[in-house]
Specification:
The complex is a heterodimer of chains A (359) and B (399). Chain A has 359 residues and is an alpha/beta fold. Helix content of chain A is 49%, strand content 12%. Chain A has 14 helices and 8 strands. Chain A has an 8-stranded mixed beta sheet, sandwiched between helices. In chain A, α2 packs across α13 (332-338), α4 (107-119) packs across α7 (144-158) and α7 (144-158) packs across α9. By secondary structure, chain B is α/β, with parallel strands linked by helices. Chain B has one domain (7-289): P-loop containing nucleotide triphosphate hydrolases (Rossmann fold), CATH 3.40.50. Chain B is 56% helix and 11% strand. Chain B has 15 helices and 8 strands. Chain B has helices at 7-10, 26-39, 53-58, 73-79, 94-105, 109-117, 119-124, 131-146, 162-177, 179-185, 201-248, 262-277, 307-317, 323-361, 378-388; strands at 15-19, 43-48, 69-70, 86-91, 151-155, 252-258, 284-290, 364-369. In chain B, α9 crosses α11 (201-248). Chain B is elongated. The two termini of chain B are 32 Å apart. Classes of the chains: A alpha/beta (359), B alpha/beta (399). The interface between A and B is large, with 92 and 100 residues.
Chain lengths: 359, 399
């Protein structure tokens, strides 16, 4: 990709370094990697998948045997991690790096597996699932996809190596986008209340116990520092606490714009606006558009900072702030920028914003 | 296949359906489209999926509700809506829509009460796969019937493909009408397992399987719910079919709204593929929140840094600042330009496949610049609508 020069990259690096210092000076909390499961959740478009991939990479690098689980129809994690077009890994999954595996939980495959275990005959189950009447029923029936997916996660959590240790030290679940009705995480509770008895009720209970267990499971909401995501994330946290008794201990705020790479953006903008155009510039925009660019970058930065304060106030939770990468997230190198140091160190609610650009 | 090739023509449709993944500003753009129609003298309504409080504020409303609300006079003036045009806004409320349907299709008060109070109805009516999509279609049906509006702009639930939206009502109907559900409705079920005997064997096996998993108590609750619900199924089916016909007919246009980030743009490509395999005609694409150079492209921004440029800028700045400061500012200007340009190039690279596809298929393609802030007042919404329909800005690109 062509760019104006090397300075774009170094400017970004500079802002990354700067934010990192702020983060490191902030309060530390327990590691995200001290539990068995991280459920990455949040509104659509906030970058849950990117965060899941970055977390997986970081965990594997720390020596943990890690599994990333996707649930959407289109797989994205493998391509994010290797930076190349990958063939679908599907329900069977595939190891992409040492200690790092990904899979996609396909509800029908998980259902077939589950019923096979319940009934004892995989053949009978496969025949049953081809039945048109049952598939019409399943296409419309609510909740079972979520329940079966979480059930599979429970089973993966229980899996053991031959020496008795867990097969996976850490399972990262890239959960579906939260909506306005029931969320993914509500389903076990509702199912248990509705079904009351039988194997399904017992399964729902086990799954519910797993996601509610603060020793085993992290619920990690991902937001953007923008109006609707902040609104929805705050409501999500409230609902998790009140209704499901789940206690997230931090929020990831993704794609936060870096400060304008200069010491006094306001003065730069003002000075540029006072110049008379056109100047005989060859490769630099004229002062007018340049001033607009300065103003725009500054405005986006301020907007993000305002929403960071808002989400911290509304939830009372520490924030993990991830930078907006100008080059996008295209592979392992970009993911590494987003990985370990960012996810381990917290920007506390009252911490100095990363917004000043005095250097 | 019909094609609507300009955004102006879109406004002459009866319905515009905005589809796309979440988080791309679909709701606000839907409102901006409806606004433009009303400014051109039409009676338009925008139906949102989210409560979208700030959008409601921008429209001068306290909040959005399940009924269309027209804008207060002062906001109409602020938004530039003349005397002939009208704009209303409403929000999709799945529970309210379903309750409304139950009331409409169950003549008998006791049946109605039994459905509305059934715990499974309360849990399930809003979570059945496709129920919010079904509710959206139901709203469209009512709005079409009422002839109160010339144009209906419909925001849709975030989905990975538009087919979800069109097919969800069918899946819901198939569910209600499936043999398995029908058999659950049989009053004989109340008698327990023996009730299944008369059924043909594959269905009976299914029921045995279900009963083994969830227990007979749950099946009985479900049966009662479905029995009550069944009385409405014909009304349901008929309406769903008619709305689907309208949506795929000549009076409706689908618009794909996307963002410029890499993942969003990639998702949009998959979305397009899906629409094509399902033969759902698309009118055009809007790429929202794209980083573009203000006032067009800088000359030769792709070139390596040119010390000469920094010098020229520095000299110009010396008219207002002492030399060291002027040099500093010129260097800063260069750094900002570099960063901004990297973003502009990145977004352009991300949307290129979409642009290419649109051109190839004869769809309109429109990029909207990322704004300094979210739309939160009437002026912001008006600006967005202006930019959307500004013919000078058609298909901008940082050449």
């Amino acid at each position: 990709m062509v760019s104006l020069g090397v300075s774009a990259h170094s400017a970004q690096r500079l802002s990354v370094e700067r934010s990192r210092r702020v983060l490191m000076s902030a309060e530390h909390s327990s590691s995200l990697f001290d539990r068995r499961i991280i459920v990455v959740t949040g509104k659509g478009g906030t970058g849950k998948t990117t965060v899941s991939a970055a977390l997986g990479l970081a965990a594997a690098q720390q020596g943990l045997s890690t599994l990333i689980v996707e649930v959407g129809a289109f797989e994205q994690i493998p391509t994010l991690i290797t930076g190349q077009r990958e063939n679908p890994v599907g329900y069977r999954g595939r190891a992409l790096r040492p200690r790092l595996r990904t899979m996609r939980i396909e509800p029908f495959a998980a259902l077939a597996e589950y019923l096979g275990l319940q009934i004892g005959s995989q053949r009978l189950v496969e025949r049953a699932l081809r039945n048109r009447s049952l598939s019409q029923f399943l296409n419309g029936a609510p909740g079972w996809r979520e329940l079966i997916t979480l059930g599979k996660v429970w089973q993966l959590e229980q899996m053991q190596r031959s020496d008795g240790g867990p097969r996976y030290d850490l399972i990262i679940l890239d959960a579906p986008a939260t909506g306005h009705g029931l969320t993914f995480l509500d389903v076990p509770q509702v199912a248990r209340a509705a079904v009351r008895s039988g194997p399904l009720a017992r399964n729902a209970q086990r799954v519910e116990a797993l996601i509610r267990d603060p020793e085993r499971t992290h619920i990690l909401p991902v937001s953007l520092a923008e109006e609707l995501p902040v609104q929805e994330t705050s409501e999500l946290v409230e609902r998790l606490r009140d209704k499901l008794k789940l206690q997230p201990d931090r929020i990831v705020v993704n794609a936060v714009a870096a400060p304008v790479p200069c010491s006094d953006p306001a003065e730069l903008e003002k000075s540029l606006r006072s110049l008379s155009s056109p100047l005989p510039l060859r490769h630099l925009p004229q002062p007018g558009p340049l001033a607009d660019a300065v103003a725009h970058l500054q405005a986006r930065h301020h907007l993000n900072q305002g929403y960071l304060d808002q989400i911290a106030d509304r939830t009372g939770l520490p924030l993990v702030v991830l930078p907006l990468l100008s080059q996008g997230v295209n592979g392992p190198n970009d993911l590494e920028i987003l990985s370990a140091p960012w996810l381990e160190r917290l920007r506390t609610a009252g911490a100095e914003p990363t917004g000043d650009c005095t250097e | 296949m019909r094609t609507v090739q300009t955004l102006d023509k879109i406004l002459q449709q009866r319905i515009v359906v905005c589809v796309g993944t979440g988080g791309v500003g679909k709701t606000t753009l839907a409102a901006a489209l409806a606004l433009e129609a009303s400014r051109r003298g039409q009676r338009a309504v925008v139906v949102t999926i989210d409560p979208a409080r700030r959008l409601a504020g921008a429209l001068g409303l306290q909040g959005l509700s399940a009924e269309p609300q027209s804008l207060p006079e002062s906001t109409r003036a602020e938004l530039g809506i003349g005397t002939t045009g009208a704009l209303s806004a409403m929000m999709l409320d799945t529970q309210a829509t379903f309750d409304g349907l139950v009331k409409k299709f169950t003549a008998e008060a006791t049946t109605r009460k039994r459905i509305l109070e059934n715990p499974i109805y309360q849990h399930v009516s809003t979570t059945l796969a496709g129920s919010s999509e079904y509710a959206a279609m139901e709203i469209v049906f009512e709005l079409l019937e009422s002839s109160e509006f010339d144009l209906i702009v419909l925001d849709t639930p975030p989905a990975q493909n538009a087919v979800d939206f069109l097919d969800a009502p069918n899946r819901l109907l198939e569910f209600i009408e499936s043999r398995l559900v029908r058999s659950l409705i049989q009053p004989a079920l109340a008698a327990g397992r023996k009730g299944f005997r008369w059924l043909e064997s594959p269905t009976r096996r299914m029921l045995d399987l279900l009963e083994g998993l969830v227990g007979i108590g749950f099946l009985r609750d479900l049966s009662e719910f479905l029995l009550a619900f069944e009385s409405m199924a014909d009304g349901f089916a008929d309406r769903a079919r008619r709305v689907r016909e309208t949506l795929l007919g000549p009076d409706c246009a689908f618009l794909l709204i996307t963002g410029a980030s890499r993942q969003t743009a990639q998702n949009a490509v998959s979305f397009l593929d899906h629409l094509e395999t399902q033969r759902i005609p698309l009118a055009g694409l809007l790429v929202n929140r794209m980083r573009l150079w203000p006032q067009g492209a800088p000359p030769g921004a792709d070139h390596p840094p040119d010390p000469q440029d920094v010098k020229i800028l520095s000299e110009a700045l010396q008219a207002i600042h002492p030399t060291p400061k002027a040099t500093d500012l010129a260097n800063s200007a260069w750094a900002v330009a570099s960063q901004y340009n990297a973003w502009v190039n990145q977004d352009e690279e991300n949307v290129e496949p979409l642009r290419h596809r649109a051109k190839d298929r004869g769809l309109f393609f429109r990029c909207l610049s990322e704004r300094d802030s979210d739309v939160h007042d009437a002026a912001g919404l008006r600006n967005l609508s202006d930019e959307l329909f500004d013919s000078n800005l058609q298909d901008r690109r940082p050449s």
